[in-house]
Amino acid sequence: MARLPARPGVYLMKNAAGEVIYVGKASSLRSRVRSYFQAGRASSPRLEALVADIADLEYIVTASEIEALVLESNLIKRYRPWYNVKLRDDKAYPYLKVTLDEPFPRVLVVRRIKDDGARYFGPYTNSTALRETLRFLRKLFPIRTCDLPLDGKRQYRLCLQYYIGRCLGPCAMRTTIEAYRQMIDQVCLFLEGRQDRIIPALEARMRQAAERLEFEQAARLRDQIRALEKVVEHQKVVTAGEDDQDVTAFARFGDTVCAQVFYVRGGKLIGRDHFILETTESTSDTEVMSSFVQQFYDKTPSVPPSVTLQHPVDEPELIERWLSERRGSRVRLVVPKRGDRRRLVEMAAENAALVLQELRSQADRRAAEKERALATLQDVLGLDRVPRRIEAFDISNIQGTDAVASMVVMEDGEPNKADYRRFKIRLTGGPNDFAMMKEAVRRRFARGLEEREALEALRRRIEARDGADPELEARLRKAEAEAKFARLPDLLLIDGGKGQLGAAREALRELGLDEEIPAIGLAKRLEQIFVEDEPDPIELPRDSYALHLLQRIRDEAHRFALGYHRQLRERRAVRSTLDEIPGVGPKRKKQLIEHFGSVKRVREATLEELLAVPGLPRAVAERVYQGVRSAARPE
Fold first, then answer.
1. CB atoms < 10 A from the CB of 599, how many?
2. Which three-class secondary structure state does DSSP give residue 24?
3. What angle do CA 234, 238, 242 make, to 5 degrees?
4. How does pLDDT run across 387-434, given as a tens digit for each residue?
5. Which keywords does this chain's UniProt record carry (predicted)?
């Protein structure tokens, strides 16, 4: 402990298997880490378990406490440590991006925030609400939806969107940058929840259009105003002033916490979102609130001047300084005891409790349905045990080219994506789905047998020792954690009929596993289940939960295989297309791939990003931009 520096930083605690189990920040690493091991410290079951699991420690020194705060949040997202409070699935939350870095901005749905000059709004935890917002926006404002490069000559052919009034036609110089930007400013005000600020400007434009006898334009503006007025009517006034604030409260049940965030702008409640966190029952309310604020505002693109909280946070001055830096002006954290703010907190907490109750009810219903489906499968297929782990295989190729196989896993009726695998088929000689299926199944289970043998060898070595061997035991735990193929499924599902099933069963027989692993085929056309040595297929009722479960995993295997196949095909198409583009030789192709890091990134690069490649002429960049998109476009 004495060797730890008395400086700000982040510490990573690891268990005997080398896994990061806790990430924390400190203004003094030496003092903070030492406090975990001091006698007479304030303790809890969670802290006692954490200290007992610590086998190693790493630390990273930072220049300031705020840097430590940001680094801690990033490391929690990276390692998902067991003892930290974690915002569940935060990577999946989408945002609306207004591409202000373009002359004629677009509104896109994205999953990551970049420092690219664009404005981001979100996150949206409800994808349905996101789609409705985007649909309403495009109906209300004529935003372009194409990805044409409009920073040069604009002499494109007008599309249908222009003629139905859903685009201003910037591609054919039917509008100016100034007029288009004025419309985009209104889009940003709408997404900020400040619809009432848009209406006066639209009313003035409507009157001007009517005075010029442009009655169609005036009618469109009138319809916009009416639509916005309906939105404003549904916004609830919650404070007497014109405060901008976020109000956060949570409800908890066991290890699950539901946090509710109310977005109050101009004294009106314009929206809300809920987020699920994973923690332990012994984690304090203060720690839960601190972790949520840190993780939520690390991803949120905008911070209001006031953040109202149900419970206090650890180191509030540090959090305020960090939020103020993110906003660019003073941000206050408030934990109200009475008044309007307290009533808002109580309303948010009540909504969080209702959401959590509904989520628990849904989870109970889903669990009951899954248990019923698994029990039905065991009965119908005559299995010795309930098929808790089901593995499904599918093949994807076009006439034998870019052939791939996928393996997806469901445990207790839920996807286990950590165990998904994909295989690039090595077989040559043209299309042969049966041989491809046999190769994929054989490779998966041959690897599984190798891992099982390696684990058994380690266990025999440990048993042969007279006393305990911590090093060998740690190696065994690490090997067990890494041996993803060693666990065999309770049921193997093959996408296809008797032919594909027969190929898979042949691979199992060659490995001596045909008696250990039951396998079935599910044919898509009639949704019939094929079992080896059974002359007739099994047909489950179309409304059967068991059939729905098999369809889900079969479709997931198909999606996973098709995605990998498209990735390989697009990569090959882009590589060959780069060879055909004038001005792109082997060296320049290598330069492009090295600059962007992958062929996929070359395909996804904007024209501005291509122009930023050192030494790449503008004409070549434009040809690359157009060429890779036409090559990678789905057929």
1. 21
2. strand
3. 100
4. 999 999 998 877 657 788 899 999 998 999 888 999 888 876 667 889
5. Cytoplasm, DNA damage, DNA excision, DNA repair, Excision nuclease, Hydrolase, SOS response
pLDDT in tens, 48-68: 888 888 888 888 888 888 888
Of 153 and 320, more confident: 320
Dig out the tokens for 575 from the structure: 């590589």
Q: Which amino acid is at 308?
A: T
CB 149 within 8 A of CB 608: no
Contacts of 42 (CB under 8 A, 6+ apart): none
Closest C-alpha among 231, 248, 276, 54 to residue 139: 231
Instruction: Determine the residue type at 603.
Output: R
Which of 460, 469, 83, 552 is closest to 282 using CA atoms? 83
Provide CB contacts within 8 A for 199, sequence distance 6+: 225, 228, 229, 232
Q: List, in sequence order, every beta strand (DSSP E) within 378-527.
A: 389-398, 401-411, 414-415, 421-424, 491-495, 519-523
Spatial contact of 410 and 492, defined as CB atoms under 8 Å apart? no
| Residue carrying the six token digits 């001596």 | 512
**403 with 411: CB under 8 angstroms?**
no
Q: Which two tokens stand for residue 259?
A: 């946090």
- E strands along 279-400, which residues? 306-309, 332-334, 389-398
Report how far residue 354's alpha carbon sits from residue 617's, in angstroms, rounded to the nearest whole number.
58
Q: How many CB atoms lie within 10 A of CB 595?
A: 16
Q: Are 248 and 307 in contact (CB under 8 A)?
A: yes
Residue whose entry in the numeric block shows the structure tokens 């122009």: 611
Convert the pLDDT of each residue in 136-194 to its tens digit. 778 778 889 888 888 777 778 888 888 888 888 898 888 889 989 988 988 888 777 77
DSSP state of 434: H
Which bin fits 183, alpha (ψ -120 to 50), beta or left (φ > 0)? Answer: alpha
Q: How confident is the model at residue 635 (pLDDT cuts 50, 70, 90)?
A: very low
> What pLDDT, in 10s, does the model give residues 538-587?
988 888 889 999 999 999 999 998 888 887 776 666 556 676 677 777 77
Q: How far apart are CA 265 and CA 263, in angstroms?
A: 6
**Domains present along the chain, CATH in parentheses:** 9-84 (3.40.1440.10), 92-236 (no CATH), 245-358 (3.30.420), 393-551 (3.30.420.340), 581-632 (1.10.150.20)
SS3 (DSSP) at 56: strand
